[in-house]
Structure formats: structure tokens, C-alpha cells
Specification:
Chains A, B, C, D: Keywords: Hydrolase, One-carbon metabolism, Purine biosynthesis. The structure is a homotetramer of 288-residue chains. The first copy, chain A, has 288 residues and is an alpha/beta fold. The first copy, chain A, is 33% helix and 29% strand. The first copy, chain A, starts with 7 loop residues before the first strand and ends with a strand.
Chain lengths: 288, 288, 288, 288
């Protein structure tokens, strides 16, 4: 669609609603000889906040994204805008954390390698050593950092250090069974993506399939959400379900749940990687 | 499939698990010159309970279902069996209760009239008078029995009297917005079907679409369940969902929810009318 | 969301792709003191065509949509734009055509009356007289215009006359079992919406459920599409499916198909009524 | 559920319908001191054929499945029954054939290794060498057998020889892009499972995603079916779909199609491995 030699970038922004926002922004873009190739916008009627996501293609070969950004600054300021710009050709760096269940990890590694999910993968971190071989087969560094029940703080500090070293844009909890401490949630706000194996807000916390079996639901699900200080209560990015029957055991649910967990996590992660998500309060706006 | 002149019936039963149940029952059926045309069975591994549903067709024109039942009694007793037999040609009697939302009622009336949902409809009862015209167009008696906040007991007594007069096999709460009192739940145990407009156990109680909007879920749903003393906590019969987006308002959810409510309620009701549901504890076994 | 006293309208357009389209259009809108509250756009990479749909709210009480339109004309011309503007407060006029199956009609009438589907309904036309009572209960004029096998031309001419008299913006074939003649398709191009009871292109033509049963598919579906000269081959607007099993008879499929037909038709019709559909060649662009 | 030390087996059978089939079979099973723990049956109304699948658990430790089978022979004969018995503890042998697309293969290998899909995997065969590393990482023999355009017969003969050597119960075409010759289809009738990347009968043959893009459908799908002499026309086992939008490119469809292909293939294969499928004419009966 866009010429691969020319710069393509995403402008994601929110600001108090007022007339002429689109005009101001689009005129600025046109004045820099760039073209809006994809547009999403939403006006929240309650807070009267305006949200937008543009994919923009430069038309000149000598377009400078740095210059564009610094010149856009006063425009944004005049609109009281919170904004970010992402070069579409630069992949985000994602660190994956995992415990023992390997289906999400195996899925992400495969889709990453064939290029279906565009991210850089500096390393995988686990509180167990059991998935080292899988990760290393993909030539990805694997770090085993145990979380000791007696000294969780130290374990998380070591984990945080290793994460920081990797310099990620996003952290993916691909069935990482440790609860992230508040200070880590806070440090990487809206950058930690978790997959929870229930259709939240049903079955918060541990062993959701066991809870589902106990309640006798006819659907099980999965939820991809940003991690916040309150367990399984962060902004929901994506959800889906799968139908079960009375003769499905918990083992059957766990098996069938794998596909829906993978699908939901990969869709949610893709949204994040393509800068399609804006967070407002405890909810997400997704320009899909 | 089965000869319309010959008796067809459903045998639904549960008993402690042991060897030879199917043999005993099927030999008895064959000995009465009848044929099993549909079979469902399930063995609960925890309680070691056996559940079964047979659709049986008599092969003789002079087959007597009464005689069959009384002769089956000792067989069932020897297996410590709880059982019931339903003549497939006899429709169940259903009383529909409704408040102001008319989509479930309109759906049920239409599907009832064209024969898609096989039941007798002695009357519709509402705590409001607004849906009288719709019901009476179908030549169905409509009873307006208000539930006065100051004297709920009297209202429910009048409702219960009218229900009893109608002699229903099943009571359908088609968006009836009053909470059934425990004594009514108890009187018609596993015979009162409700449609709740959320994927339970999420969003129990009042205004689930408002709760869903607040939590920012990406799916809304509906649950058909038997009514018990505990609000929205009875055995779940059927559930389904519909996908929503960040720009869907509560009004949009309510509109889109109508289709899934109708679908889920009609599927759940059909299961009940065709004797496909067995209740075990707080869960349902559905032979679909 | 938008102030009910102020004009809100939809601008739907397509034009050859070039830089600055959004800028030109949005600047013009801002210059007339109006605000873009909803935006969809798409750039087709093959034909390099740009498609857009804006929902615009005027900010002044004395905004004139007529003046806006005539002043927009030269802007549009300079972009070689095909465009239309629709006042959001003016409902489209829809004529419904139906034969004997009543589920789509009953659904549309109910959703129309409660305001879920916003259209004017001047009349319902049928080649049978059997659904007169249902239509007249809603106080909607019903016209019985038989299509005689021996003289189809005369029947369609009479039908076309009655349609023309009603002056519809859209014609809904709600299980109308006669094939529209090419001259009628051509007269109302991209304004005749049909519901076909299969997931096209599977099972074109007559009796799709019978075809589905014969092929042994595990899903049946429905397709909402614009009617063109080639049978069941027009631009697809919406599709969905429902799962079936080996023991579902054709009658079971027809019953279960009703819900999916209704859902798909109403979603497709809503898209049309809200000016969300642009047709390109034989495909639709849907800004949902 | 069943005692792991005791024999558990599946009895799958079909015969002309008559009274007393269930009685005869279940009495025989009870007489051998075994218990029916799962039952599915279906009576085809057109051909008056009876289909059944029982899961049976022996109650004695010295139960002999060989003795049971030989003693059941005359019972089956008296019912003109076609039947087979499978020991539930013996996994089927599956040979996987693949070309260049690796998603189905990667999925099957992962689920096989963790035990989600119970089969023996003697080898993987490919007409390309590119997936050797992936297969060998799982310690599974990989055979590269090119299919030369100029001499397809020789290539298929070599493939058939290698398959025969492996002695499979089932052959899985996991995106194997060569058309199986009739003699191979015939040799392994109802034992070759293919995944086709469309919701058949739509888009038979090559490049179904390209066909889907051309037709402008709103859903893409996948179909798991038995391979027969007629291309993509064999008995359908399982199907599912995923929703797409006007701005999804063929590459997007291919990416999103992977999940639905994997899910549909693994469900269809599981049905086969658990002896849940009976084929009647060109349709499948699936006891799920």
C-alpha cells in the first residue's frame, strides 16, 4: 500500500473535544507532504474526550519523522493533546514472561519467527527452567529467575533488573503464574499484557477453569488485559470464548482453552504492537 | 422418523452407577416391543451417578404407555432410579411471565404460533398492562397482576394463584423484572426458566448491561438458567455472547443483546420442552 | 452525543487517491463550523481509490445543510469525488417485499416499531395474501400483488409501480421468493437488499438448506447482499453461520436458520440505513 | 473415570434398523461383565440405518478384548452389523504429510508432544526439505520425498511406500499441496484427513483465500474432511469460520486463517482418533 522506501508512521492522540481537531491535524500533515492512509477516531460522550489514530505515509523520500514530530509539538499543545508517534517500520521490543504452561509461549515463538507478529524479542524470562530448550531452539536468550516464596521481593527485583536490561516496549505475561507487584505494574503502566484464562470479570484469580467447572457454565473464555495493581481488573483489550459441555472435564477445558488463550493473546498483542489501543480510565479504545 | 400413529416417548432417568443399567433398561424396552431411537447417557465420575435419556418408539399400535410405566416401576426400583416418562406427542404447558421489555415475548409468541417451539400456552402474566395488545393478537389470555412495592407478598400470591390455575409444566420468565420469592422457586423447582442478560456469573443482579459498560468488557452475553432461591445463581442451561466495541453505548448493547437473549432463551426452553435437561446439584446435564 | 437540536449528517464519498484529501475535506468542514464526530476511511491499494464516511455535527443552530452541500460541490469536484450527504435525523424509506415465510418480516416489523431499526415504512408488498393480518396489525399498508407464472412481466410491472409510488430509498427482500428482473435490479442499483439463506457463494439458487443437507456441511449460514442481475452474486454486505449436527433434519436447519437470517439481514439493513456501505465493483466497504 | 488397570474400548457399528439392537448389544456387554460408560446412537430416517458408538469398560481384571470380539461376532452377524472395536489405551498411528506452510505441522507437533492429541507419530513426510529441522527437534523421523511435476507417479509411489512402511491408521494432510492420486485415496479410504482453507463447498481447489478476496465474502473458513477421488468433495468432518473485513488483505486472511485451520484440523483429527466418526455415503456422523 505505502511505498516501502518512504516513511510510514502512526500518530495516536487524545485531547479535550472541540471543533476543528481533525482539520488542524490533517492540514498539518498535508503541509508536510504526507498522506493519511488509515484513520480511526472516537469521541467519548461522557468525558467529551477525543481519541484518534492515524497511519500516515510520507510522500517525499527526504521526509524526516524527527522534524515532523518537533514541528507537530505546538499544534498538539494548542489542542491540549496527549500524543505519541511510532515509526511503522520500527518493531517494538517485547519481553515474554512464562511459568510452566508452554502453549502461549510456543504459539508466540512460532508466530514471531514466521513474521506474523512483528516484534523484537530480546529474551524470555521464566521462574522455572523447564522451557529453556524450546526457547533456545529459536535462538532466543532464556533467563531462569526463580521467585522464591520466602523472598518474593528479591525474585521480582532480579526479574525487573533483567527486564530493564532488555529495554522492552511491552512485557507479555504468557501464562506467568506470579502476581506482578504493584511497583512493577506502576513502572510499566499499560505496557504489561496478561492473558487470563476466563472471560473476566468471571473467575478472577487462581484456577479459573476449576471455578468454571464448579459453576457449571456452558462457555469458557480468555481475556487479554493490561496488568494493574488490582488482580485481573485492568483494562480489557480482547476476549473470546469456546463452548463446553457437561461431560467436559477440567482437563478438557484446559486443553480447549489453549486455542482461545492463544488467539486472544495474539490479537491483543497485535493491537498493542500496531498502536491500536488507547486506555481511558479502566477501559480500552481499540481502533481495529 | 417414527410412525406418527405409534406412541413415542422419552425416558429420562438417573441412578447410582453400576454395571448392566443399559442392558436392564434396553431389554425391558425391547421386551415391550419398543425401539430406542435416540440415546444420551453420562456417567458423572465424582458422584458415580448415571444419567440417561432415551427416546423410545413403540412398534405396536396397541402399545400402552401407562402399562409400560407401571411395569417399568420395579425395574427402576431395582436400580434405585429416579425417572420420568413423557409422551412425545403431548406438549408441555408453559406460562410466560413478562414485564415491559417485549422482545423475548414477541419472539416466543411468534415461534410458538408457527410451531417452532412446541408448547401449550394457557396464558401470559405481566406486572404491567403494556403488552396486552401484543398477547391478545395471538388469542392468548393476558393477565395483568401488578407487584406493588408496598405489598409484594400479595402480588406474588395473586401471581402464584393464576399460575396454579394454568397448571403449567414450565414457567418462563421472559424478562420478568421481579425477583421470584423463595417459596415460589421452591414450589416449581427446576421448572422456572429465566433469561439473564449477561454471561453469568459475570454481572449478577440489576442492570447487567450497565455493569458491562462500566467494566469495559469486549463481549456481552445472555444466560438461560433455572431459578433458585439465590439470585442468578441457579443451574445454567445455555449461554451465548455477542461482540461489542468501545463505541457501543448501553443502548447499543441493549439492542444487540436482544438477539442473543432470544436465541439463548429459546434454545434453553426447547431443551426443557424436549426433556433434554437433568439437574445435578447446581449444574445441568444437557443431552442435545 | 450530538446536540439533538443541531444538524448532524453523514458525508460518504470516494475519489482517486491523492495527498491532502482529508485535509481539504476537514478544513472545509471546520470552516463551516462543524465537527467530525465519527470517521472511517479506506484506501484500496489496487485501484488507488480513497473511500470515506464522516459523521459531522454542526456547531451552530443556524447551520444549513443545503448551503453546506452546494458549497462543498467545488471541493468535491476538485477531488473528482463521488459523494452523498444524508441528514442523520431523516430516516430512509424502506419498502419490504415478502412471500410466505414470515420470520424476517415479523422480526423487521417488531424492531421497526420499537425503534431499533430507524426507517420509514410506507408499505409491505407480497406475492401472497397470507401475511396481511400481521402487517396490518402494525398499521402498515399491505399490498398483495401476485406474480403469475404465465405472465411474470405484468406482475413485476405492477410491483414496480407500487414500489415507485412508495418512493423508497431501499427495498428489502425479506424472503421474497421471486427473482427480481434485471430492469428492476438496474433501476434500484445498490438499493435492493436480499437475505439469502446460505453462506454464499455456497448454495446459490433455490433451496439452499436442501443443498446443505445433501453436501453434509457442519455449518449453515445466511448472507445479506445487494441484488444484481446475476442471481445471488451481488456485493455481500454481511454473513454469519450457525453450527449444525448430523441429526439435524432440513426442518431443523430451516428453524435454526431463521435466527441467523434475521440477525444478518438486520445488521446489513442497519449498515445501509446508516450509510455505512460503499460498493466498489462487486465488493462492499463497510465502515462499522 | 474408568479404572486405568481395566480394559476400556470403543465399539463402533452400523446396521439396518430394527427393534432390539440396543438390547441385544447391551445384554451381550453386560453378560461379559462390562459397562457402557458413553453412548451415542443415530437412526438415519432415509436409509433406515442404525449407527452406534459405545465406550465400554470391563469390570474384571482378566477381561479379554480378543475373546469379547470373537464372541461378539455372531451377535453382530445376526444384526447384519458392520463394526469395529478399538482398545482405548492403544493410540492410533498417524503419518503427517506437509509441504511448505508450517503452521498446521507446528501445531500438531506441539499438541502431540504435550499429550493433547493422542497418537503415535512414526514419521513426517514432505515434498520439500524446509521443515526438517522443526520435525527433527521433536525427535521424529522426517522424509523428504519430492513430487516431480514431470513424474508425479514415481513421487507418489515413493510416498506410498514410505507411508506403508510406517503402517498408519490415519494419514494427516497438514497443508500438503499435492493432489492425492485416486489409487492412494482408494487404498486408505476414510483414513486420509485433509484440511482445506475454505468453508467448503465454497472455494474448491487452489488458492481459496484469493478466491475469497475476489468474491468479497465477510467470513473465511476451514474444512476438515476425508480425502476422496473428487477434489475437496469428500465427507466433511468439521468446519469453522473467522470474520474478516474489507481492509483485510490476502496476507491478513492467510494469517488469520492459520488459527481456524489449526483448530478445525485438530478437532477433526481428535474425532478420528477417538473413533467418533462414521461415514455414510458422502456425509459424516460425528458422536461428539
Amino acid at each position: 500500500m505505502s511505498d516501502p522506501e518512504k516513511v510510514s508512521f502512526r500518530l495516536v492522540a487524545s485531547c479535550p473535544d472541540q471543533a476543528g481537531i481533525v482539520a488542524k491535524v490533517s492540514v498539518f500533515i498535508a503541509s508536510r507532504n504526507a498522506s493519511i492512509v488509515e484513520a480511526g477516531q472516537y469521541e467519548d460522550p461522557r468525558t467529551r474526550t477525543f481519541f484518534m489514530r492515524y497511519v500516515v505515509s510520507a510522500l517525499d523520500h527526504d521526509f524526516s519523522l524527527a522534524a515532523f514530530s518537533s514541528e507537530f509539538e505546538p499544534v498538539a499543545k494548542s489542542l491540549q493533546m496527549q500524543w505519541r508517534i511510532a515509526n511503522a517500520s520500527e518493531k517494538q521490543r517485547a519481553v515474554i514472561l512464562v511459568s510452566k504452561f508452554d502453549h502461549c509461549l510456543a504459539y508466540l515463538l512460532h508466530r514471531w519467527r514466521v513474521g506474523d507478529l512483528p516484534f523484537e524479542l530480546p529474551c524470555v524470562i521464566s521462574n522455572h527452567d523447564s522451557l529453556r530448550n524450546l526457547v533456545e531452539w529459536y535462538d532466543v536468550p532464556f533467563h531462569h529467575i526463580p521467585i522464591d516464596k520466602a523472598n518474593k521481593q528479591a525474585g521480582f527485583q532480579a526479574t525487573a533488573d533483567k527486564i530493564e536490561e532488555a529495554g522492552p516496549d511491552v512485557i507479555v505475561l504468557a501464562r506467568y503464574m506470579q502476581i506482578f507487584p504493584p511497583w512493577l505494574c506502576s513502572k510499566y503502566r499499560h505496557r504489561v499484557i496478561n492473558i487470563h484464562h476466563s472471560f473476566l470479570p468471571s473467575f478472577v484469580g487462581a484456577r479459573p477453569y476449576h471455578q468454571a467447572e464448579k459453576r457449571g457454565v456452558k462457555l469458557i473464555g480468555a481475556t487479554c488485559h493490561y496488568v494493574t495493581e488490582e488482580l485481573d481488573a485492568g483494562p480489557i483489550i480482547e476476549q473470546d470464548i469456546v463452548r463446553i459441555k457437561h461431560n467436559d472435564t477440567i482437563a478438557d477445558m484446559m486443553r480447549q482453552g489453549k486455542d482461545v488463550e492463544n488467539r486472544v493473546l495474539s490479537i491483543g498483542l497485535r493491537y498493542h504492537l500496531e498502536d491500536r489501543i488507547l486506555v481511558q480510565g479502566n477501559k480500552t479504545i481499540v481502533f481495529d
